[in-house]
Write a structure and sequence with these properties.
The complex is a heterodimer of chains A (about 250) and B (about 625).
Chain A: H1 7-24, H2 29-41, H3 43-52, H4 60-84, H5 91-115, H6 130-151, E1 159-160, E2 162-169, E3 177-185, E4 190-198, E5 201-211, E6 216-222, E7 228-236, E8 239-251
Antiparallel strand pairs in A: 2-3, 3-6, 4-5, 4-7, 7-8
Chain B: H1 2-5, H2 31-34, H3 40-62, H4 68-88, H5 94-115, H6 123-138, H7 156-168, H8 172-199, H9 202-212, H10 227-247, H11 251-269, H12 273-297, H13 305-322, H14 325-345, H15 365-392, H16 397-413, H17 422-450, H18 457-476, H19 479-482, E1 489-491, E2 494-496, H20 499-511, E3 516-518, H21 521-529, E4 534-536, H22 543-548, H23 553-563, E5 567-571, E6 586-587, H24 601-604, E7 615-618, E8 622-626, H25 628-631
Parallel strand pairs in B: 3-4, 3-5
Antiparallel strand pairs in B: 1-2, 5-8, 7-8
Helix pairs in contact in B: 3-4, 3-5, 4-5, 4-9, 4-18, 5-8, 5-9, 6-7, 6-21, 7-8, 8-9, 8-10, 9-17, 10-11, 10-12, 11-13, 12-13, 12-16, 15-16, 15-17, 15-18, 16-17, 20-21
Classes of the chains: A alpha+beta (about 250), B mainly alpha (about 625).
Chain lengths: ~250, ~625
């Protein structure tokens, strides 16, 4: 069983661990999340609340409220302070500042607690019965299933897919290079025909471009030298008479 | 501890059985009762099943199931009704009631999370996502937000989110969900403890928090990643801390609580403008009333003038030295609201049609009935509660302010009939419902005391809460927004996204960030948040006219030059001008679109005829033009 008086030493140790891990950037992702959630959202407020109320002035729920609320408050005000420093808001500066705040508040709380006559050596007990644990566990599983269901893959039933066609001057240095792209957001394999013209004259044609849902097609194309108006028109293979998408670009000398 | 609480000015002590009162020793209840979770595990189990039903309704609505909406309401009621029934009864312990309000707060928050489970999609969320992303990239505050510039001047939410994201490696989305979840715990806990402190009744506290959860914005609006969702919980903490400070005699504790209130006020000042003003008004009102009470009733109260004046100084300093543009931003909103009220009163305009969405869809009859009933029942509750407060002669400054807030609800209701005032009326409910919850809760406790043998009262109260809650959801969120919308679609293992999001991704990948582009709101928000573009949208600079009407070339060139726009995104769908509804896949019956309306072709294709305006992106509905030749803008910002 934990002793309530060990809370602040534990807060200090946890803060120093997060500081060390943050400075040396060595922590694995899961541990990183598990440690930094309380480091940002609980520990600063817990330590400050302990410093302000060193005795038994705060019951459990009030302590929880002040831990969370003061952590949020401390972090907000710390962000303003960090913004004034040359380091700004980044991993190390956050870790250092929040650790300093938590340490100073914890040490102040420990010091004040020594002067308090109140008995703070009560043991922490697990407050739930087996039945309650099982019921809460079952609730947790159902909630997890609900979130999993909400986050699961969504079918395309009853929705309208589409295709994008785009054209840009190529990143190549030559001015008559263009890049042409198609991105299918259709819900099935689609066959396209693509026509490229310069000042209305055919330059190139792709009679069958087949794209599965989510797939892309892009090409760099060298056009005849000179200026003019480039137009790319995309057709659905099953409806070749009707332009499906159209893009244009002006070529300069 | 007795010293901490000071003299017991118990508001309800004669109304409550001893079982439900806060123990004389202060917060701590006898060990046996304090550990009693009562029916909390069972209620949590029922509520979690409700959440599963809501999740089912969301997924089935995307597949077009007709029963999805019914399942949605059943799921929500499964979350709230068991809590309501337990709260209305006398048996639950303080611990159980606190557990119930925390479960309720988090349970309803999860509904919002499941509503939008992949990324932030609400318009305000996208604005704040952009701000947070900017802070992560630059390591600095007060960046630029082209759509809502004042939002960067209140970076509290973004500071906490980016701190968590930076240190934990979580995405902004995940970190934001955690922060708002913690804020949700803070607000229900703070309100419970506040109500408990001013009433000295845990039952009253639980009922009041439950009633607060029926406000139209609790389910979705207050749960979104937006500055108000964080500032309001901090404001609720001020209420609790102030109420506690009132009853404490020990100087060192009073000083500590004063310091906490000031820190909370400072955090609110840098988080959200309106909340900081409400805090100032609240503290000033309390101070004035205390002075009056002291003068005429000779009653002793702690002095709050210092707190009020410091809060006023902090708020004004921030407004003047940091967030000056807020004045113009807010004055415009209030000016529109005021003008529309005057126009309505003078008959120059017709009132806004209630229960009609911006797209013209009228709510079904049962929704209109429940919506109106909920307002009437709220008003009835306020009247009864106010009379009960008056009758019991238990008025003190804090109670008077709460009752005043509740009564203000009457006046604010009128704004719902105006187009521009509706938003103010709707948003104010988050604040006013703190007063409403207290007054109505008090009225219920009085009724309970007058009719102690009536076993039906918990059922009646549960029904009352059900109507208020459903009516609140109906009033705050249009039918088209309540159920989940199709954002990401999975086909053969590929994840597909709607064209606004696709265009945003394409721009970032192919054109880089910070291009000046004008777009309709739904596309603009995606381009700002996920495309990292400098986007202009809305009715400023004649953007609306430029995109939805035909004009001559000179006018177009003038507008584009004035806006300094490099790209123009034209979306032919009318819904693209709705920042909440336009960013999703469209529905189809397999042959054509369902319920989609378009701008006239001559409007959406007017730039096609200009040879010097390349049409560089075409998704069918959304076309992007390079208008640099007209505006003279050739470089990114």
């Amino acid at each position: 069983m934990l002793n309530k008086q060990n809370d602040l030493p534990m807060v200090i140790v946890l803060s120093l661990i997060v500081l060390g891990l943050a400075v040396f950037n060595i922590y694995p992702p899961v541990l990183r999340v598990l440690l930094t959630l309380p480091f940002v959202l609980v520990l600063p407020g817990y330590a400050i609340a302990a410093a302000i109320f060193p005795g038994q002035d705060l019951a459990g729920f009030e302590r929880l409220l002040f831990s969370l609320g003061l952590s949020l408050t401390t972090t907000i005000l710390s962000g303003l302070v960090l913004n004034l420093t040359p380091w700004g808001l980044q991993v190390t500066s956050w870790a250092v500042l929040l650790t300093i705040i938590t340490l100073v508040a914890s040490l102040a709380a420990l010091r004040r607690r020594r002067h308090e006559s109140a008995n703070t050596t009560a043991k922490l007990r697990f407050p739930l019965s087996l039945r309650q644990v099982l019921l809460f566990g079952l609730s947790g599983l159902i909630v997890t299933a609900a979130i999993g269901l909400a986050r699961g893959p969504k079918p395309s039933h009853n929705l309208q897919g589409y295709t994008t066609l785009w054209i840009l001057p190529s990143a190549e240095s030559q001015q008559n290079f263009i890049t042409l792209g198609i991105h299918s957001q259709e819900f099935e394999l689609v066959h396209y025909k693509l026509q490229l013209t310069l000042d209305g004259k055919p330059v190139q044609e792709w009679p069958d471009i087949s794209l599965a849902p989510g797939r892309q097609w892009a090409q760099n194309i060298l056009l005849p030298a000179g200026q003019g108006s480039v137009e790319a028109v995309l057709f659905l293979a099953n409806n070749p008479g009707t332009p499906y998408r159209r893009v244009t670009l002006g070529l300069k000398k | 501890m007795q010293d901490m609480l000071g003299g017991r000015n118990t508001l309800l002590e004669e109304l409550e059985s001893g079982d439900n009162q806060v123990a004389e020793s202060g917060f701590s209840l006898p060990a046996k009762r304090a550990l009693g979770l009562g029916w909390l595990p069972e209620v949590a189990l029922l509520g979690s099943m409700g959440l599963l039903v809501v999740a089912l309704s969301f997924t089935s609505s995307l597949a077009g199931a007709a029963w999805a909406e019914l399942a949605y309401w059943i799921g929500l009621l499964l979350v709230i009704l068991p809590v309501s029934y337990r709260m209305a009864g006398a048996a639950a312990s303080r611990q159980e009631r606190i557990g119930l309000v925390v479960f309720l707060g988090l349970g309803l928050y999860l509904v919002k999370v499941m509503h939008s489970p992949y990324m932030f999609t609400y318009s305000d969320e996208l604005l704040h996502f952009h701000n947070a992303d900017d802070i992560l990239q630059s390591g600095r505050l007060f960046g630029e937000n082209s759509i809502l510039p004042v939002s960067t001047l209140y970076p509290g939410l973004e500071i906490v989110t980016t701190a968590l994201s930076t240190l934990s490696g979580l995405s902004i989305f995940a970190a934001g969900l955690v922060v708002i979840g913690v804020a949700r715990v803070v607000i229900v806990l703070a309100l419970f403890l506040f109500f408990e402190h001013i009433s000295h009744s845990v039952r009253m506290a639980g009922l009041a928090v439950l009633l607060y959860a029926t406000n139209p914005n609790f389910l979705y609006w207050s749960a979104q990643f937006s500055y108000e969702s964080l500032s309001l919980p901090l404001g609720a903490m001020i209420l609790f801390t102030l109420a506690w400070r009132e009853r404490i005699k020990a100087n060192h504790l009073q000083r500590g609580l004063t310091a906490i209130i000031l820190a909370l006020t400072a955090a609110i000042v840098v988080t959200h403008h309106i909340t900081s003003y409400v805090v100032v008004v609240f503290l000033l009102a309390i101070s004035v009333l205390k002075s009056i009470w002291h003068r005429f009733r000779k009653s002793e109260h702690t002095n709050t003038w210092g707190l009020a004046l410091i809060a006023l100084a902090l708020t004004l300093s921030w407004l003047v030295f940091v967030a000056n543009p807020t004045i113009g931003y807010l004055s415009q909103i209030f000016k529109y609201a005021f003008t529309s009220v005057i126009q309505l009163l003078t008959g120059k305009t017709v009132g806004r049609e209630l229960f009609t969405s911006p797209t013209g869809v009228v709510s079904p009859l049962w929704e209109r009935l429940v919506g109106i009933s909920s307002v009437l029942l709220t008003l009835l509750g306020i009247l009864l509660g106010s009379l009960a407060l008056w009758w019991r002669k238990r008025l003190d400054p804090l109670v008077v302010v709460l009752a005043g807030a509740a009564l203000l609800y009457f006046g604010i209701l009128g704004l719902r009939f105006t187009g521009a005032g509706w938003e103010i009326a709707n948003r104010s409910s988050e604040f006013l419902f703190i007063g409403i919850a207290f007054v109505v809760g008090f009225g219920f406790v009085v009724v309970r005391q007058l009719l102690p043998q009536k076993r039906s009262i918990p059922f009646v109260f549960t029904g009352y809460v059900a109507i208020l809650f459903i009516g609140g959801v109906i009033a705050g969120w249009t039918p088209s927004l309540r159920l989940a919308k199709p954002l990401l679609v999975s086909v053969n293992g590929a994840t597909l996204q709607p064209d606004g999001l696709e265009a945003a991704s394409w721009m970032l990948e192919r054109l880089g960030p910070e291009n000046e582009i004008a777009a309709p709101p739904s596309d603009a928000l995606m381009m700002l948040a996920y495309g990292k573009q400098y986007v202009l949208t809305g009715q400023i600079y004649s953007i609306l006219e430029l995109m939805t009407e035909t004009h001559d070339l000179q006018w177009q060139a003038n507008v584009l030059q004035m806006m300094q726009i490099h790209y123009l995104a034209i979306d032919r769908r009318l819904i693209s001008w709705n920042g909440m509804l336009g960013q999703y896949f469209d529905h189809s019956d397999g042959i054509s679109r369902v319920g989609e309306q378009f701008f006239p072709v001559e409007v959406t294709t007017q730039f096609d005829t200009l040879t010097n305006v390349p049409r560089i992106f075409d998704s069918g509905d959304l076309v992007i033009y390079d208008v640099g030749a007209l505006s003279g803008v050739k470089q990114t910002k």
